[in-house]
Design goal:
By secondary structure, this protein is mainly beta. The chain is about 5% helix and about 40% strand. Strand 2 and strand 3 form a beta hairpin.
């Protein structure tokens, strides 16, 4: 009983410190206009824009990350194409990179669900799920189109109607810059020659193909070209067993990443550190919360899709850790049946940085 009381106390503390960035009950343009990926921010003119993509992704904008208005125009949505080779079934904008010349690039998480199209023998959601990542582009920051070329990350084999578990590349992190390159993480499920884990991809800032770390160099192009072979799968980075959903580079050159995970019976959002992006420290619990995929039916809500933002970062894309740092996540109230519906809010906690470098939830967020 003491342990249960402690957990409830932690949840209450986290709840009272939350700042709401998107209130579904007041701001949703349609019933299913929901935050359904980690929040991504970029500078737009003299203000800020934000997207937390859904199957019909929309942008919010305002003078700062805490004062945003919803734009009801759909920025991008998939075409529900029944052909898995099109990578155009259900699509979520997941990452955004804004250039100084007003060009905006994005990476999108794509899900193909064979159970919906009658192309999968198992006939169930999880068993028939194949994911990939595609590139999008925009000239106005309001609407996006598909960029030409192959997928950024797709398995090098045809969709198997007999598959029995989900497969592919999932959930791109934010895009972040280091030197001449842009980087992003995607999460791979084990399938054939592809090992399970976090794959690191990079591309020159000026353009070109995204290439994944293959264990020795950035030499793997995950374009989905059929046939396993060298250069067609990634080597997951070490120390990471769950999705790295958001990465910031500190002024000391150390990268901080957040990941939702469960370990040692504790569920919540964890922090990991790296100096080279290839080897990561053991996870540190940042905040204990009931997670969407490890939900506690006695809790009032479940949480998912964490991301970090430093509002004072001079970067157009807020990927550097300067000044205050905030943690954002999607909060989903649980119904009597322990299910979640469209009612989802994007919330944020201000983090406190101690002299040791440890981060924790501040209890005095405005």
């Amino acid at each position: 009983m003491r342990w249960i009381a402690l957990v409830l106390s932690l949840w209450a503390t986290a709840a009272t410190a939350q700042t709401v960035l998107f209130d579904w009950s007041e701001e949703a343009c349609t019933r299913w206009d929901i935050p359904d990926t980690p929040a991504r921010f970029w500078r737009e003119g003299t203000g800020v824009a934000m997207i937390a993509g859904s199957q019909a992704s929309r942008v919010s904008a305002g003078p700062d990350p805490f004062t945003l208005e919803r734009r009801c125009v759909v920025a991008y949505a998939g075409d529900h194409d029944p052909d898995p080779r099109s990578h155009d079934d259900r699509v979520w904008i997941a990452s955004v990179w804004s250039h100084a010349d007003v060009r905006i690039e994005a990476l999108a998480h794509v899900e193909y669900h064979g159970d919906r199209h009658g192309t999968c023998l198992a006939g169930t959601y999880m068993a028939c799920w194949r994911s990939s990542v595609i590139a999008l582009e925009s000239r106005d920051g309001k609407t996006f189109t598909r960029a030409p070329g192959p997928p950024v990350a797709a398995l090098p084999l045809a969709y198997d109607p007999a598959q029995k578990r989900r497969s592919g590349y999932f959930n791109p992190s934010n895009i972040f810059r280091s030197g001449r390159f842009l980087y992003v993480f995607v999460f791979a499920e084990a399938h054939g020659a592809q090992a399970r884990g976090a794959c690191l991809l990079r591309r020159r800032v000026a353009g070109g193909a995204w290439l994944a770390w293959d264990g020795a160099a950035f030499g793997a192009r995950l374009s989905g070209r059929i046939g396993f072979g060298r250069g067609r799968t990634c080597a997951p980075v070490s120390g990471v067993t769950s999705t790295l959903s958001s990465v910031l580079r500190g002024e000391d050159g150390v990268y901080l990443a957040v990941t939702p995970r469960s370990a040692l019976g504790r569920h919540g959002i964890w922090l990991q550190r790296s100096s080279d992006l290839l080897a990561w420290s053991a996870p540190e619990l940042l905040v204990e919360l009931p997670l969407l995929w490890r939900r506690d039916c006695a809790a009032p809500a479940a949480y998912a899709y964490p991301a970090l933002i430093a509002p004072g970062s001079p970067s157009r894309n807020f990927e550097t850790l300067v000044g205050e740092v905030w943690l954002t996540a999607v909060r989903m109230p649980l119904g009597p049946d322990c299910e979640v519906g469209p009612e989802r809010d994007l919330v944020a906690w201000r983090l406190r940085r101690e002299e040791t470098g440890k981060l924790s939830i501040a209890d005095d967020a405005p």
